[in-house]
Design brief:
The complex is a heterodimer of chains A (465) and B (502). Chain A has 21 helices and no strands. Chain A is mainly α and 465 residues long. Chain A has a domain of 215 residues. The longest helix of chain A has 32 residues. The model of chain A has no long low-confidence stretch (mean pLDDT 89). Helices cover 77% and strands 3% of the residues of chain B. In chain B, helix 1 packs antiparallel against helix 2. The chains are: A mainly alpha (465), B mainly alpha (502).
Chain lengths: 465, 502
């Protein structure tokens, strides 16, 4: 069972956390327990990687790739936990269940990244999604959060239904629920229909065009830490499955490749164009994440050894910068307030009122825009290189053009921050030391890997083989 | 590796200086300014001794210093820096005019002092990096690093129409940046397909075997991008508005330094990197240069905004640069380097003067100036001096550069040289008109504003001294540039013989 250690530790941590909450309601204790569980799972990874015997074969695959993704998910969750702690500190709600929901969702996401059968895939996906709905609706005194949660519940229920139907069709065609068996089976109409339905579900989870409509509403309605979670963790987990599928060397049918190409192009263009029109920073991030998923699909379509590192490098970059950007919103807001400080007007004058936070956000935005010296520049170059290598000229051309559009609204946010402060009082008076430390760490990562990306590249190459 | 560490320091000092100034600017604006000034001073101290160094780069040529360390081995990208005479001259120009930019904003910028200086310093660091990079990807990295902070300087601290100007600047620079990027990647992957090695090393890529069309397209991407940066006709449209709306320090850096990166790019990454293709486009480039000279001069003549007038003269002068680069001739190339420096000094001074006029009269409109000589004699006399210098008055720096270019061009393309020389007539016209409208005639109204103080007088005297020195004793600059041109010219000339079929 050694390779499954991270998942087992997470499951134990969930049980322990329940016991802790039952015995004494303490936000600090609950967050501490969850954090300890995440870190313990993270610490068990090197150990799990060296284990020889497979665990739960047929249900999960624990190799260096899936364990690497689990590591990324755990680290990102821990970061969101830290950001959430300060955010909820003043809230007049029972605060202890937020770490619990986060831990359960992380268990689902981590297991999803390693799933090898349609059964585990669906169970993990639902574990993650249901816990996330709770996280979205967590501030129950905010109508927009309730609305977002309900919207997510309905839409993700529908996409789950698509996936389930797709799984049923594939099982009908191949007689097996194993991912590997399904992919090795010859293409038949039923099989293709099943793949298409799963594609719709996956497209919804990844929020690529044309399944992107929910993103801005839910990012804007959800409290900032949840926003980060929905934007990052769910997408890493689903991309992990896609990348592992690709690593098996399966060749997708022509039609599927065309469909994904179209989705990538539309995501890049529509995401960046619609972001231009937004006045709400969370909605900007929502549309921006649609565009970034388009970039990720470009690298995924490029396939090959270079591209595989490029995808994961970009995912790491995306995780760091998105968590950072939502983290800034969280640091400016409080779970106690009726809304988050997510209007562009709320960011006005940050260079004067919150210079350090504004500096971090500047570098995060440069990273999202793909400008040196931030890590996003290197990540984008990596995808360019992968795309040019495999001569995906149309995709690369679209990526180039749409990133120019993208630059526009990212830089605009920086200019808003540099304007004279507005009259309205800031929503949160001061930033807790824990968020300060988290933001400083994220800023350092963005800048550090942007100047010297080689250590990260080497690490990813070692993990991806 | 001789002097290599100095090159790294040269880049790090302004970066760190900017990073220090940012937090300092909030409570201690004066300290932030002083830190930036000190950082640039230190940078100068690092640069000067490099002049007498020699470095054995693996490649032939006259290099003063070089540095090479792996950066992203996965893509064959190195931190490969090299300094020759041209890079040295332009680096010194960058540092000194950067210092002027900081001094000039001492009184002008009082909001967001820290972030302003951070942007200024990072842009300067990026510019120095552009002059030193010998790895194409590193070059692009610095290119972006130079432009993005400048965008903030314009968009945040600019004049009335700053937003529009910043967006224009941004679209043109990012568009041309993408052209550079595509050309660089295309060249690198082409090289990889021939040799199996992915590298962005300048010297390795120079050896790439290129057939006509592909080479021409790669060259065209770089050529357009650098001509945009140089603001040559017809891709100059971003320049007048950007230079006009930027704060004085921004205009100084834009006109005196950033324009030069376009010329430098044409030298190093078009003429010397892709010489055969560069020769193919030379006739077009020469006539674009002539068009720029006339177009810039005529539009300058028609302006009533003094700052815009100076911006248009830059277009005219850059036309000479374009001609000088594309005649592939040692004399003209000497002239180009010389004009780059002289233009940097004279235009920088002019923008500083316009900035102080605006600070005092709150207008840049020539119709509302008039008669300044009676109220502001020092400002007006310096203004006249630098306008005459920019016009190309013999005995002052710009004349030497323009003369060398025309002399060199005459040997290769006499028609172009003669036409360009005719362009000096409208230059005299707009210069004299500007002097007359701004400084002479009856005053609009009695003005109670102070004339140049000690700080401004000192700046002006230093710049005027430099222009006179360049004009009467050009030898040292030419001597520094000469061996460096040897790094570029042989490659270009051999290629010309190939094109000519000899």
């Amino acid at each position: 069972m050694m390779p499954a250690a991270p998942l087992i530790i997470l499951a134990i941590a969930v049980a322990v956390l329940l016991a802790v909450i039952a015995s004494r309601r303490s936000h600090f204790a609950a967050t501490g327990t969850a954090g300890f569980g995440l870190l313990a799972a993270l610490a068990s990874l090197p150990w799990a990687m060296h284990a020889a015997a497979p665990a739960l074969p047929g249900l999960f695959t624990f190799d260096s790739v899936s364990l690497g993704f689990i590591g990324l998910i755990l680290a990102a969750s821990a970061m969101i936990l830290v950001i959430g702690y300060a955010y909820w500190q003043k809230a007049k709600l029972p605060r202890e269940e937020f770490p619990l929901l986060l831990l359960i969702a992380t268990l689902g996401a981590a297991a999803l990244a390693a799933s090898a059968s349609f059964i585990t895939l669906f169970l993990c996906l639902e574990t993650m999604t249901l816990a996330m709905i709770g996280m979205i609706a967590y501030p129950r005194d905010r109508p927009q959060a309730e609305e977002a949660a309900l919207k997510y519940l309905v839409l993700s229920g529908m996409s789950s239904a698509f996936i389930l139907f797709g799984i049923g069709l594939i099982e009908l065609a191949t007689g097996s629920l194993g991912l590997a068996d399904a992919l090795a089976a010859p293409a038949s109409p039923i099989m293709l229909a099943g793949l298409a339905m799963i594609g719709v579900g996956a497209g919804f989870k990844l929020s690529v065009v044309p399944f992107h409509f929910w993103v801005p509403d839910i990012y804007a309605g959800a409290p900032a830490p949840t926003g980060a979670y929905v934007a990052v963790i769910a997408k890493i987990a689903v991309m992990a499955v896609l990348i592992r599928v690709q690593a098996t060397g399966v060749t997708l049918p022509e039609g599927v490749v065309t469909a994904i190409t179209a989705a990538a192009i539309l995501s890049m263009l529509i995401g960046n164009l619609l972001a231009l029109l937004q006045q709400n920073f969370k909605r900007i991030l929502g549309y921006s994440s649609i565009a970034h998923l388009g970039y990720l699909l470009v690298a995924w379509l490029a396939a090959g050894a270079v591209a595989r590192v490029a995808v994961v490098f970009y995912l790491v970059t995306y995780a760091i910068t998105m968590i950072g950007a939502f983290g800034v919103i969280a640091a400016l807001s409080s779970g106690a307030a009726g809304r988050d400080a997510d209007q562009l007007a709320d960011l006005r004058g940050m260079f004067w009122t919150r210079p350090a936070l504004a500096a971090v956000l500047t570098f995060l935005l440069l990273s999202l825009a793909g400008i040196p010296p931030a890590i996003g520049f290197i990540a984008k170059m990596y995808i360019f290189a992968a795309g040019i290598h495999t001569e995906l000229w149309l995709l690369i051309g679209t990526m180039v053009a749409s990133s120019v559009i993208g630059l526009f609204y990212y830089l605009n946010v920086i200019i808003v921050m540099a304007q004279r402060p507005g009259e309205q009082a800031p929503l949160a008076a001061a930033t807790a030391w824990s968020s300060r430390a988290a933001m400083a760490a994220l800023g350092a990562l963005v800048l550090g890997f942007g100047v010297a990306p080689q250590p990260l590249i080497a690490l990813l190459k070692a993990i991806l083989g | 590796m001789s002097g290599g560490l100095s090159l790294v320091l040269l880049l790090l000092i302004p970066l760190v200086g900017g990073a220090l100034a940012w937090p300092l600017g909030r409570r201690f604006p004066a300290v932030a300014r002083a830190v930036c000034l000190a950082a640039l001073g230190l940078d100068l101290v690092v640069t000067i001794p490099l002049l007498h160094g020699t470095a054995a780069l693996a490649e032939p040529g006259n290099w003063l210093a070089n540095y090479d360390a792996p950066w992203i081995p996965a893509f064959g990208m190195d931190v490969r820096l090299g300094m020759d005479g041209i890079a040295w001259l332009l680096t010194v120009l960058t540092i000194i005019l950067g210092m002027f930019a900081i001094v000039v904003s001492w009184k002008e910028i009082d909001e967001g002092v820290g972030f302003f200086h951070a942007n200024l310093m990072w842009s300067l660091a990026g510019t120095i990096g552009v002059f030193l990079a010998l790895d194409l990807f590193l070059f692009f990295y610095f290119w972006e690093l130079m432009l993005v902070p400048m965008y903030f300087v314009i968009a945040i601290w600019g004049h009335e129409n700053r937003r529009r100007a910043a967006i224009k600047f941004f679209l043109f620079t990012q568009g041309s940046g993408l052209l550079i990027l595509i050309s660089i990647f295309a060249l690198a992957f082409l090289h990889q397909s021939q040799t199996g090695v992915l590298t962005f090393d300048y010297f390795e890529l120079q050896r790439t075997q290129l057939n006509g069309t592909v080479a021409y397209l790669i060259m065209l991407g770089l050529f357009i991008a650098f001509v945009v940066k140089l603001a040559g006709f017809p891709v100059h449209v971003w320049l007048p508005e950007t230079h006009t709306e930027a704060p004085t320090a921004g205009s100084v850096i834009l006109a005196s330094i950033l324009l030069k990166t376009g010329a430098y790019g044409l030298f190093r990454f078009v003429a010397a990197l892709l010489p055969a293709a560069a020769h193919q486009i030379a006739p077009v480039a020469l006539w674009l240069g002539v068009a720029s000279i006339f177009y810039g001069a005529l539009l300058a003549y028609g302006q009533s905004d003094l700052k815009k007038l100076i911006a248009y003269t830059s277009i005219s002068h850059m036309g000479f640069i374009l001609i000088g680069v594309f005649v592939f001739n040692a004399l003209a190339w000497q002239g180009v380097i010389f004009l780059l420096i002289a233009h940097g000094v004279s235009t920088g001074a002019l923008f500083i003067i316009v900035g102080s006029v605006q600070h005092r009269l709150h207008t840049r409109d020539l119709d509302r100036m008039g008669g300044m000589w009676t109220d502001l004699p020092k400002l007006s006399s310096f203004g006249t001096f630098f306008i005459l210098a920019a016009m190309g008055l013999p005995g002052l720096g710009n004349f030497v550069g323009e003369f060398l270019i025309l002399r060199g061009a005459y040997a290769v393309a006499p028609v172009v040289a003669i036409t360009a020389a005719v362009g000096l007539i409208p230059a005299a016209l707009y210069s004299l008109i500007a002097v007359q409208r701004a400084f002479h005639g009856p005053a609009d109204a009695a003005r109670k504003v102070p004339d140049f103080g000690l700080r401004e007088n000192a700046m002006m005297l230093a710049l005027a001294g430099a222009i006179i020195w360049l004009g009467v004793y050009p030898r040292p600059v030419l001597d520094i540039a000469a061996p460096a041109l040897g790094n570029l010219l042989p490659v270009a000339q051999t290629a010309m013989l190939k094109v000519a079929g000899r």
